[in-house]
What does this fold into?
Amino acid sequence: MVHLKNGGTIVADSIEDRGDTLVVRQGKSRIVVPRADVASIEKTPPKTGAAPAAPPAGRTPSGDPPLSGTRGPDVPPAGPAADARLLDDLRRRLQTPGPARGENLRQIVELLDRMGEGALRDHRPDDAKRQFTEALGWNAGDVRGQRGLAASYMALDNLPLARSFLERSLLEHPNDPDLLFLLGETAEQQNRTDEAIALWEKVLALRDAPALRQRVEMLRHLSSVDAGYQRREAAHFTVAYDGQITLPDLEHAIVGYLDERYDELATRFDYLPTRPVAIVIYPEKDFYAATRADPDVAGLYDGTVRVPCGGLSHLDALSRSVLVHELAHAFVAGKSHDAAPRWLQEGLAQMMEGKTPDEGTARALARQYQSSSERAPWGATFTYPSSLSFVSFLSTRYGFGSINQTLAGLGEGRDLDGALRAATGFPLDDLRRQWGDDLVTRLP
It folds into this structure.
Protein backbone atom coordinates (compact mmCIF):
# COMPACT_ATOMS: atom_id res chain seq x y z
CA MET A 1 0.00 0.00 0.00
CA VAL A 2 1.61 3.26 -1.18
CA HIS A 3 0.46 6.26 0.92
CA LEU A 4 0.82 9.54 -0.97
CA LYS A 5 1.48 12.92 0.63
CA ASN A 6 -1.74 14.31 -0.86
CA GLY A 7 -3.76 11.83 1.23
CA GLY A 8 -4.30 9.23 -1.48
CA THR A 9 -3.24 5.61 -1.55
CA ILE A 10 -2.34 3.14 -4.30
CA VAL A 11 -2.82 -0.57 -3.80
CA ALA A 12 0.02 -2.38 -5.57
CA ASP A 13 0.71 -5.99 -6.48
CA SER A 14 4.41 -5.13 -6.44
CA ILE A 15 6.70 -2.10 -6.21
CA GLU A 16 10.06 -1.51 -7.90
CA ASP A 17 12.26 1.17 -6.33
CA ARG A 18 14.23 3.15 -8.93
CA GLY A 19 15.67 5.84 -6.70
CA ASP A 20 13.74 9.02 -7.63
CA THR A 21 10.71 7.06 -8.75
CA LEU A 22 8.67 4.01 -7.81
CA VAL A 23 7.24 1.68 -10.43
CA VAL A 24 3.91 0.43 -9.09
CA ARG A 25 2.42 -2.62 -10.75
CA GLN A 26 -1.30 -3.42 -10.62
CA GLY A 27 -1.96 -6.57 -12.62
CA LYS A 28 -0.82 -5.73 -16.14
CA SER A 29 -0.82 -1.97 -15.46
CA ARG A 30 2.18 0.07 -14.37
CA ILE A 31 2.24 3.48 -12.68
CA VAL A 32 5.42 5.52 -12.21
CA VAL A 33 5.19 7.65 -9.04
CA PRO A 34 7.76 10.32 -8.08
CA ARG A 35 9.47 9.31 -4.85
CA ALA A 36 8.97 12.85 -3.51
CA ASP A 37 5.19 12.31 -3.61
CA VAL A 38 5.31 9.23 -1.38
CA ALA A 39 4.69 9.55 2.35
CA SER A 40 5.14 5.88 3.27
CA ILE A 41 4.85 2.32 2.01
CA GLU A 42 2.91 -0.24 4.01
CA LYS A 43 3.36 -3.96 3.47
CA THR A 44 0.10 -5.91 3.63
CA PRO A 45 -0.38 -9.64 4.17
CA PRO A 46 -1.04 -11.77 1.07
CA LYS A 47 -4.67 -12.25 0.07
CA THR A 48 -6.24 -15.48 1.26
CA GLY A 49 -9.58 -15.10 -0.49
CA ALA A 50 -11.82 -12.76 -2.36
CA ALA A 51 -12.12 -9.22 -1.09
CA PRO A 52 -15.42 -8.39 0.54
CA ALA A 53 -17.89 -6.68 -1.75
CA ALA A 54 -18.27 -2.93 -1.28
CA PRO A 55 -21.62 -1.88 0.18
CA PRO A 56 -24.00 -0.30 -2.31
CA ALA A 57 -23.80 3.48 -2.46
CA GLY A 58 -26.73 5.80 -1.89
CA ARG A 59 -29.88 4.73 -0.12
CA THR A 60 -29.70 2.50 2.90
CA PRO A 61 -31.98 -0.50 3.43
CA SER A 62 -33.88 1.56 6.03
CA GLY A 63 -35.06 3.88 3.26
CA ASP A 64 -33.01 6.91 4.28
CA PRO A 65 -32.51 9.49 1.51
CA PRO A 66 -29.71 8.96 -0.98
CA LEU A 67 -26.41 10.77 -0.79
CA SER A 68 -25.82 9.97 2.85
CA GLY A 69 -22.23 11.13 2.54
CA THR A 70 -20.46 7.79 2.35
CA ARG A 71 -16.88 8.39 1.38
CA GLY A 72 -14.45 6.39 -0.62
CA PRO A 73 -11.57 4.67 1.17
CA ASP A 74 -8.84 6.89 -0.27
CA VAL A 75 -9.98 10.35 0.78
CA PRO A 76 -10.36 10.47 4.57
CA PRO A 77 -12.36 13.30 6.19
CA ALA A 78 -10.08 16.22 6.95
CA GLY A 79 -12.23 19.32 7.40
CA PRO A 80 -13.07 22.16 4.99
CA ALA A 81 -9.66 23.88 5.08
CA ALA A 82 -7.70 20.67 4.51
CA ASP A 83 -10.15 19.59 1.79
CA ALA A 84 -9.69 22.92 0.02
CA ARG A 85 -5.88 22.58 0.16
CA LEU A 86 -6.05 19.02 -1.14
CA LEU A 87 -8.41 20.09 -3.91
CA ASP A 88 -6.05 22.87 -5.01
CA ASP A 89 -3.11 20.45 -4.95
CA LEU A 90 -4.97 17.90 -7.07
CA ARG A 91 -6.00 20.57 -9.57
CA ARG A 92 -2.36 21.64 -9.86
CA ARG A 93 -1.16 18.07 -10.36
CA LEU A 94 -3.71 17.48 -13.09
CA GLN A 95 -2.32 20.37 -15.11
CA THR A 96 0.84 18.33 -15.67
CA PRO A 97 0.52 15.12 -17.70
CA GLY A 98 2.21 12.11 -16.17
CA PRO A 99 1.76 8.50 -15.11
CA ALA A 100 -0.01 9.46 -11.89
CA ARG A 101 -2.71 11.46 -13.71
CA GLY A 102 -5.24 8.62 -13.60
CA GLU A 103 -4.88 8.25 -9.83
CA ASN A 104 -5.06 12.01 -9.29
CA LEU A 105 -8.13 12.21 -11.50
CA ARG A 106 -9.88 9.49 -9.52
CA GLN A 107 -9.04 11.21 -6.25
CA ILE A 108 -10.24 14.67 -7.29
CA VAL A 109 -13.58 13.27 -8.43
CA GLU A 110 -13.96 11.34 -5.18
CA LEU A 111 -13.03 14.37 -3.10
CA LEU A 112 -15.45 16.68 -4.95
CA ASP A 113 -18.24 14.12 -4.56
CA ARG A 114 -17.62 13.91 -0.82
CA MET A 115 -17.47 17.68 -0.46
CA GLY A 116 -20.71 18.01 -2.45
CA GLU A 117 -22.48 15.47 -0.26
CA GLY A 118 -21.34 17.35 2.83
CA ALA A 119 -22.68 20.59 1.36
CA LEU A 120 -26.05 18.93 0.73
CA ARG A 121 -26.20 17.68 4.32
CA ASP A 122 -25.43 21.22 5.51
CA HIS A 123 -28.18 22.69 3.30
CA ARG A 124 -25.71 24.48 0.99
CA PRO A 125 -27.11 23.39 -2.37
CA ASP A 126 -25.29 26.10 -4.35
CA ASP A 127 -21.92 24.85 -3.06
CA ALA A 128 -22.99 21.25 -3.70
CA LYS A 129 -24.02 22.08 -7.25
CA ARG A 130 -20.65 23.71 -7.93
CA GLN A 131 -18.68 20.77 -6.53
CA PHE A 132 -20.68 18.08 -8.33
CA THR A 133 -20.49 20.05 -11.58
CA GLU A 134 -16.69 20.15 -11.31
CA ALA A 135 -16.56 16.43 -10.49
CA LEU A 136 -18.56 15.68 -13.63
CA GLY A 137 -16.28 17.97 -15.61
CA TRP A 138 -13.39 15.68 -14.70
CA ASN A 139 -15.44 12.49 -15.21
CA ALA A 140 -18.79 12.85 -16.97
CA GLY A 141 -19.72 9.24 -16.20
CA ASP A 142 -19.32 9.56 -12.42
CA VAL A 143 -22.66 8.22 -11.18
CA ARG A 144 -22.08 9.51 -7.65
CA GLY A 145 -21.66 13.00 -9.07
CA GLN A 146 -24.75 12.57 -11.26
CA ARG A 147 -26.84 11.66 -8.23
CA GLY A 148 -25.42 14.59 -6.31
CA LEU A 149 -26.00 17.17 -9.02
CA ALA A 150 -29.60 16.02 -9.45
CA ALA A 151 -30.15 16.25 -5.68
CA SER A 152 -28.63 19.75 -5.73
CA TYR A 153 -31.08 20.88 -8.40
CA MET A 154 -33.90 19.44 -6.30
CA ALA A 155 -32.66 21.22 -3.17
CA LEU A 156 -32.66 24.43 -5.22
CA ASP A 157 -36.31 23.67 -6.14
CA ASN A 158 -35.46 23.38 -9.82
CA LEU A 159 -37.48 20.25 -10.47
CA PRO A 160 -37.61 20.55 -14.29
CA LEU A 161 -33.81 20.72 -14.54
CA ALA A 162 -33.38 17.90 -11.99
CA ARG A 163 -35.83 15.76 -13.94
CA SER A 164 -34.14 16.40 -17.29
CA PHE A 165 -30.71 15.62 -15.85
CA LEU A 166 -31.93 12.41 -14.16
CA GLU A 167 -33.55 11.15 -17.36
CA ARG A 168 -30.25 11.62 -19.22
CA SER A 169 -28.27 9.94 -16.44
CA LEU A 170 -30.60 6.94 -16.46
CA LEU A 171 -29.84 6.37 -20.13
CA GLU A 172 -26.29 5.66 -18.98
CA HIS A 173 -27.18 3.91 -15.69
CA PRO A 174 -30.71 2.51 -16.24
CA ASN A 175 -30.74 0.35 -13.11
CA ASP A 176 -29.18 2.73 -10.60
CA PRO A 177 -31.63 2.71 -7.66
CA ASP A 178 -30.61 6.15 -6.40
CA LEU A 179 -31.21 7.83 -9.75
CA LEU A 180 -34.57 6.05 -9.99
CA PHE A 181 -35.43 7.12 -6.45
CA LEU A 182 -34.61 10.77 -7.16
CA LEU A 183 -36.63 10.76 -10.38
CA GLY A 184 -39.53 9.34 -8.36
CA GLU A 185 -39.13 12.25 -5.91
CA THR A 186 -39.45 14.77 -8.73
CA ALA A 187 -42.52 12.94 -10.04
CA GLU A 188 -44.22 12.95 -6.65
CA GLN A 189 -43.47 16.63 -6.08
CA GLN A 190 -44.95 17.39 -9.51
CA ASN A 191 -48.10 15.40 -8.57
CA ARG A 192 -47.31 12.62 -11.07
CA THR A 193 -48.35 9.99 -8.58
CA ASP A 194 -48.57 6.96 -10.88
CA GLU A 195 -45.11 7.67 -12.28
CA ALA A 196 -43.61 8.05 -8.78
CA ILE A 197 -45.10 4.71 -7.71
CA ALA A 198 -43.79 2.95 -10.82
CA LEU A 199 -40.26 4.34 -10.36
CA TRP A 200 -40.13 3.47 -6.67
CA GLU A 201 -41.35 -0.05 -7.39
CA LYS A 202 -38.30 -0.41 -9.64
CA VAL A 203 -36.12 0.77 -6.74
CA LEU A 204 -37.70 -1.80 -4.42
CA ALA A 205 -37.07 -4.54 -6.98
CA LEU A 206 -33.37 -3.60 -6.91
CA ARG A 207 -32.96 -2.89 -3.20
CA ASP A 208 -34.97 -3.60 -0.06
CA ALA A 209 -36.00 -0.33 1.62
CA PRO A 210 -38.79 -0.74 4.21
CA ALA A 211 -39.39 3.00 4.66
CA LEU A 212 -39.76 3.49 0.92
CA ARG A 213 -42.07 0.48 0.73
CA GLN A 214 -44.34 2.09 3.34
CA ARG A 215 -44.27 5.34 1.41
CA VAL A 216 -45.29 3.59 -1.81
CA GLU A 217 -48.12 1.78 -0.03
CA MET A 218 -49.43 5.07 1.42
CA LEU A 219 -49.14 6.84 -1.94
CA ARG A 220 -50.98 3.99 -3.65
CA HIS A 221 -53.70 4.14 -0.99
CA LEU A 222 -54.16 7.91 -1.37
CA SER A 223 -54.21 7.57 -5.15
CA SER A 224 -56.89 4.88 -5.02
CA VAL A 225 -59.26 7.24 -3.18
CA ASP A 226 -58.92 10.27 -5.45
CA ALA A 227 -58.28 8.40 -8.74
CA GLY A 228 -61.56 9.58 -10.28
CA TYR A 229 -61.40 13.17 -9.06
CA GLN A 230 -61.51 16.11 -11.42
CA ARG A 231 -58.33 18.17 -11.59
CA ARG A 232 -57.59 21.71 -12.63
CA GLU A 233 -54.71 24.14 -12.52
CA ALA A 234 -54.93 27.57 -10.90
CA ALA A 235 -52.34 30.35 -10.65
CA HIS A 236 -50.86 29.13 -7.38
CA PHE A 237 -52.55 25.74 -6.94
CA THR A 238 -53.33 22.38 -8.45
CA VAL A 239 -56.75 21.25 -7.29
CA ALA A 240 -58.35 17.80 -7.22
CA TYR A 241 -61.98 17.29 -6.14
CA ASP A 242 -64.86 14.86 -6.48
CA GLY A 243 -66.95 16.52 -9.17
CA GLN A 244 -69.99 14.39 -8.38
CA ILE A 245 -70.21 15.59 -4.77
CA THR A 246 -68.27 18.87 -4.47
CA LEU A 247 -70.22 21.56 -6.30
CA PRO A 248 -68.26 23.57 -8.90
CA ASP A 249 -69.27 26.82 -7.16
CA LEU A 250 -67.77 25.56 -3.92
CA GLU A 251 -64.54 24.53 -5.65
CA HIS A 252 -64.27 28.01 -7.23
CA ALA A 253 -64.98 29.64 -3.86
CA ILE A 254 -62.24 27.59 -2.17
CA VAL A 255 -59.63 28.46 -4.80
CA GLY A 256 -60.69 32.12 -4.79
CA TYR A 257 -60.38 32.33 -1.01
CA LEU A 258 -56.99 30.60 -1.01
CA ASP A 259 -55.77 32.96 -3.74
CA GLU A 260 -56.55 35.92 -1.48
CA ARG A 261 -54.82 34.41 1.51
CA TYR A 262 -51.87 33.22 -0.60
CA ASP A 263 -50.83 36.80 -1.29
CA GLU A 264 -51.21 37.73 2.40
CA LEU A 265 -49.11 34.78 3.53
CA ALA A 266 -46.45 35.48 0.90
CA THR A 267 -46.11 39.01 2.33
CA ARG A 268 -46.22 37.86 5.96
CA PHE A 269 -43.59 35.16 5.53
CA ASP A 270 -41.56 37.06 2.92
CA TYR A 271 -41.58 33.89 0.86
CA LEU A 272 -43.14 32.51 -2.31
CA PRO A 273 -43.50 28.73 -2.77
CA THR A 274 -41.40 27.60 -5.70
CA ARG A 275 -44.18 25.49 -7.24
CA PRO A 276 -47.99 25.34 -7.09
CA VAL A 277 -49.47 24.10 -3.82
CA ALA A 278 -51.37 20.83 -4.31
CA ILE A 279 -54.88 20.74 -2.81
CA VAL A 280 -57.26 17.78 -2.57
CA ILE A 281 -60.87 18.49 -1.58
CA TYR A 282 -62.55 15.35 -0.26
CA PRO A 283 -66.05 14.36 0.62
CA GLU A 284 -66.10 13.69 4.36
CA LYS A 285 -65.87 9.90 4.13
CA ASP A 286 -63.11 10.01 1.50
CA PHE A 287 -60.95 12.30 3.63
CA TYR A 288 -60.82 9.92 6.58
CA ALA A 289 -60.52 6.86 4.34
CA ALA A 290 -57.61 8.39 2.43
CA THR A 291 -55.65 9.99 5.28
CA ARG A 292 -56.58 7.54 8.08
CA ALA A 293 -56.76 10.62 10.29
CA ASP A 294 -58.53 10.71 13.66
CA PRO A 295 -62.19 11.81 13.56
CA ASP A 296 -61.38 15.16 15.22
CA VAL A 297 -58.88 16.16 12.48
CA ALA A 298 -60.36 18.93 10.33
CA GLY A 299 -57.61 18.98 7.69
CA LEU A 300 -53.95 18.14 7.22
CA TYR A 301 -50.85 19.04 5.26
CA ASP A 302 -48.38 16.33 4.20
CA GLY A 303 -46.88 18.19 1.27
CA THR A 304 -50.43 18.40 -0.08
CA VAL A 305 -53.27 20.39 1.52
CA ARG A 306 -56.02 17.85 2.23
CA VAL A 307 -59.40 19.08 3.47
CA PRO A 308 -62.86 17.51 3.86
CA CYS A 309 -65.67 19.65 2.47
CA GLY A 310 -68.41 17.07 2.01
CA GLY A 311 -71.91 18.42 2.56
CA LEU A 312 -70.92 22.09 2.21
CA SER A 313 -72.70 24.29 -0.29
CA HIS A 314 -70.67 27.40 0.57
CA LEU A 315 -67.58 28.36 2.55
CA ASP A 316 -68.30 28.96 6.23
CA ALA A 317 -66.01 30.41 8.91
CA LEU A 318 -64.75 27.01 10.08
CA SER A 319 -63.85 25.93 6.54
CA ARG A 320 -61.97 29.18 5.95
CA SER A 321 -59.98 28.64 9.14
CA VAL A 322 -59.07 25.09 8.17
CA LEU A 323 -58.01 26.14 4.68
CA VAL A 324 -55.73 28.98 5.75
CA HIS A 325 -54.28 26.84 8.58
CA GLU A 326 -53.23 24.12 6.14
CA LEU A 327 -52.02 26.62 3.54
CA ALA A 328 -49.83 28.28 6.19
CA HIS A 329 -48.13 24.91 6.71
CA ALA A 330 -47.06 24.95 3.05
CA PHE A 331 -45.37 28.34 3.53
CA VAL A 332 -43.65 27.38 6.80
CA ALA A 333 -42.48 24.04 5.40
CA GLY A 334 -41.20 25.65 2.21
CA LYS A 335 -39.32 28.52 3.88
CA SER A 336 -37.71 26.21 6.47
CA HIS A 337 -37.10 23.34 4.00
CA ASP A 338 -39.28 21.12 6.21
CA ALA A 339 -37.04 21.77 9.23
CA ALA A 340 -39.50 23.75 11.41
CA PRO A 341 -40.41 21.83 14.60
CA ARG A 342 -44.03 20.96 15.23
CA TRP A 343 -44.61 23.67 17.87
CA LEU A 344 -43.44 26.35 15.44
CA GLN A 345 -45.48 24.92 12.56
CA GLU A 346 -48.70 24.67 14.54
CA GLY A 347 -48.24 27.94 16.42
CA LEU A 348 -47.78 29.85 13.16
CA ALA A 349 -50.64 28.05 11.41
CA GLN A 350 -53.00 29.04 14.26
CA MET A 351 -51.76 32.63 14.13
CA MET A 352 -52.50 32.77 10.40
CA GLU A 353 -56.08 31.67 11.19
CA GLY A 354 -56.33 34.76 13.37
CA LYS A 355 -56.28 32.91 16.70
CA THR A 356 -54.84 34.54 19.82
CA PRO A 357 -53.95 32.91 23.18
CA ASP A 358 -56.82 32.84 25.66
CA GLU A 359 -56.48 33.94 29.27
CA GLY A 360 -57.31 30.53 30.69
CA THR A 361 -54.43 28.92 28.78
CA ALA A 362 -52.07 31.72 29.87
CA ARG A 363 -52.96 31.24 33.54
CA ALA A 364 -52.58 27.44 33.35
CA LEU A 365 -49.20 27.72 31.62
CA ALA A 366 -48.00 30.31 34.15
CA ARG A 367 -48.91 27.98 37.05
CA GLN A 368 -47.07 25.11 35.34
CA TYR A 369 -44.01 27.29 34.91
CA GLN A 370 -44.05 28.36 38.57
CA SER A 371 -44.11 24.74 39.71
CA SER A 372 -41.55 23.45 37.20
CA SER A 373 -38.08 22.28 38.17
CA GLU A 374 -35.00 24.08 36.91
CA ARG A 375 -33.49 20.68 36.21
CA ALA A 376 -35.85 20.02 33.31
CA PRO A 377 -36.61 22.39 30.41
CA TRP A 378 -40.08 23.84 30.77
CA GLY A 379 -42.51 24.14 27.88
CA ALA A 380 -41.14 21.27 25.80
CA THR A 381 -44.41 19.27 25.84
CA PHE A 382 -46.43 20.02 22.71
CA THR A 383 -50.04 21.18 22.82
CA TYR A 384 -51.84 23.39 20.33
CA PRO A 385 -52.63 26.09 22.94
CA SER A 386 -49.04 26.18 24.27
CA SER A 387 -47.57 26.37 20.77
CA LEU A 388 -49.82 29.34 19.94
CA SER A 389 -48.89 31.01 23.23
CA PHE A 390 -45.13 30.57 22.70
CA VAL A 391 -45.14 31.69 19.06
CA SER A 392 -47.29 34.70 19.98
CA PHE A 393 -44.79 35.60 22.71
CA LEU A 394 -41.87 35.40 20.27
CA SER A 395 -43.70 37.55 17.74
CA THR A 396 -44.61 40.16 20.36
CA ARG A 397 -41.22 40.26 22.10
CA TYR A 398 -38.90 40.00 19.07
CA GLY A 399 -41.14 40.86 16.11
CA PHE A 400 -42.48 38.63 13.36
CA GLY A 401 -39.31 39.34 11.39
CA SER A 402 -37.39 37.25 13.93
CA ILE A 403 -39.68 34.32 13.20
CA ASN A 404 -39.06 34.71 9.49
CA GLN A 405 -35.33 34.90 10.20
CA THR A 406 -35.58 31.68 12.23
CA LEU A 407 -37.40 29.89 9.40
CA ALA A 408 -34.82 31.10 6.89
CA GLY A 409 -31.99 29.95 9.17
CA LEU A 410 -33.53 26.49 9.44
CA GLY A 411 -33.85 26.42 5.66
CA GLU A 412 -30.15 27.23 5.35
CA GLY A 413 -29.20 24.25 7.51
CA ARG A 414 -28.82 25.77 10.99
CA ASP A 415 -30.06 23.79 13.93
CA LEU A 416 -32.97 25.21 15.91
CA ASP A 417 -30.83 26.77 18.65
CA GLY A 418 -28.54 28.34 16.06
CA ALA A 419 -31.43 29.74 14.03
CA LEU A 420 -33.16 31.15 17.11
CA ARG A 421 -29.94 32.61 18.50
CA ALA A 422 -29.22 34.37 15.20
CA ALA A 423 -32.77 35.79 15.13
CA THR A 424 -33.25 36.71 18.81
CA GLY A 425 -29.87 36.39 20.52
CA PHE A 426 -31.05 33.49 22.69
CA PRO A 427 -31.26 29.67 22.43
CA LEU A 428 -34.55 27.80 22.78
CA ASP A 429 -34.40 27.03 26.53
CA ASP A 430 -33.68 30.68 27.38
CA LEU A 431 -36.61 31.80 25.22
CA ARG A 432 -38.90 29.31 26.95
CA ARG A 433 -37.89 30.72 30.33
CA GLN A 434 -38.55 34.26 29.09
CA TRP A 435 -41.98 33.10 27.91
CA GLY A 436 -42.71 31.57 31.31
CA ASP A 437 -41.58 34.72 33.16
CA ASP A 438 -43.80 36.80 30.89
CA LEU A 439 -46.81 34.59 31.62
CA VAL A 440 -46.23 34.90 35.36
CA THR A 441 -46.02 38.70 35.24
CA ARG A 442 -49.49 38.77 33.69
CA LEU A 443 -51.13 36.66 36.38
CA PRO A 444 -53.99 38.49 38.16
The domain at 230-336 is CATH 3.40.30.160 (Glutaredoxin). The chain is about 55% helix and 10% strand. Residues 46-75 have pLDDT under 50 and may be disordered. The two ends are 77 Å apart (CA to CA).
